[in-house]
């Protein structure tokens, strides 16, 4: 009996272990499904990009990609089933969990095995193709040199006879080039789009988008003329230009008539009889409809017909959502060699820089076009047969964002202006503000949003929506936007870039009025002094709301006395080690935002800091790469309306300013950001007296050792970021008093030992980011009382502890972070 009892006890123990294992597996089923969906969403676009890259793949590689693509789609559907499954259906969840394990293993095996072999094969092909291409280039160069030997090519002086003389002979290759201009930099795009068009039924609606003048229409017309495409569709291709103000009903009838003609063997008149039954056609005849120059999503939705066998190509400057398009190809700008080839063809009638020409000057002009085909062709045509002095003047005018001549203004800037005319007035004004920043420089997103909120009376959410709209219309580009739009993301590590032609357009549109009447006064490029046009008109007040200055070192005597009674934004860009703040700041009574950015390699010493005391309405202050001088309490009046202060790459020595009273200087401050201020070891204790502070970001400050002991007095604080502060070992005890704190970011604080046991005092806390904090081994028990906590981002080592707390915190989502090493901030 004893043996039987022991045997039964062992069986019961094993059954209990098995039950616990099954229960744990089913409990973690839904988080695993969410993680699987994230993995698939990251991997599937890459697989599709490889499949439709335009590169011919072997049968075995294509089979492997198709197999993993199907597995990813099946895995996505499986994860959706898991998320929709009832948590109490243990048996079903267990079965789904096992299936997910198989999918995850299959994905892992592919990534670690065949995908690596694909990479090695691609590297090998690139090496072989590069070697062959160099051989062809060398042979072509020898033939060209032989043909050019008999040509009379010279350089004109100032006689006006033309800079380069016409060639006595034309190379055969150039005659071919004249009839096949598309080959300049567009062959890759042609292959990619053609593969999408000839692919299976999965890709029904295909988008081609890009900046205005990038060659979208040229590309799609060439594809429609391609022999393989015409053969596949048996010449049943319809090209429709939609335009900005289309007659939608007329276009619909045209498309319906085309489908009717295909369906009923040429009887287009029948189209009106089946206009409402097109979705039910049983035709399998392949047809292609190209919708060119589409400007509106509602219009596009009315012009897409779900006819079996029909594919639609949408050509637009706008990025339409994936809910409408099955695939999208974004047209890339030309590389330097292709840009030079296209420019030379337009300017000289040949594909390369003529012998004896000023190569540096030509490359400088080409560089101003930034690879935009329309700009290369228009500017090249404007400079054809012009003397050298005209070319140099044109280069200088381009540097100042001014048109070269009437044809440049009409054919390029006015054509690009179509994209702007279609915007609402508020969005158009926001676009024009982008011209206030230097060319080829990233624009900090936080700066942009601050300016827009101050100038256009909008909140940050609307400003961000405008930013997304401009990005979708290819009028700007978001850089480092992986966290953009997140409620607690910091905007200063996200930036915006813009093509120089679009910047020139913004400056051109803002400079139509006289300099005293303009809403935006912008120095288009760096100069050593204030523009002469400004000096000549300094006797009258300037009515600009935005003033943007870009200079080198400026002393007090270099500035001109000017009056700006309506200026609300001042942007000071410079590159020097010393900078005297302009005295005319005193004549800006309405100034609300001040941006000061030093592009020099050295941190600049600021002078005349006391002039800021006159800015009674200042609300936003942005300093970058400057030394913050001693702030004299008696001579600097309180900035009573200042709400935001951002200090980036600044030198701040607060040890010599122990008497600094921040609550006196900034009584209404709500946001304070300090990033890469590497010499700052402590925060002034007076910061705890700024009771209005709601957001505090102390990031990438490698010397910071501790936060003030009275930190708990910041009772209104909602956001606290102290990430990448390696010497910070603990958070202050007063953190328990921060009852309104919603977000805390301590990521990359590699020496931070623990979360405070008093963390439960922050009962409004909704999100914790603690990735790359290797010293935090255990979590405080009090964390289970954070009832408002909804999201935690952490390393895998501590993720299981947070997941165990999900029983007490049912709304908690635990996100395991991937390691990320980012040095993008060093590129400037």
UniProtKB/TrEMBL annotation:
GO terms for biological process: defense response. GO terms for molecular function: ADP binding. The keyword Iron-sulfur does not apply. Keywords: Leucine-rich repeat, Plant defense, Repeat. This is RPW8 domain-containing protein. InterPro entries: Apaf_helical (IPR042197), LRR_dom_sf (IPR032675), NB-ARC (IPR002182), P-loop_NTPase (IPR027417), Powdery_mildew-R_dom (IPR008808), WH-like_DNA-bd_sf (IPR036388). Residues 1-149 form the RPW8 domain. The keyword Secreted does not apply. Belongs to the disease resistance NB-LRR family.
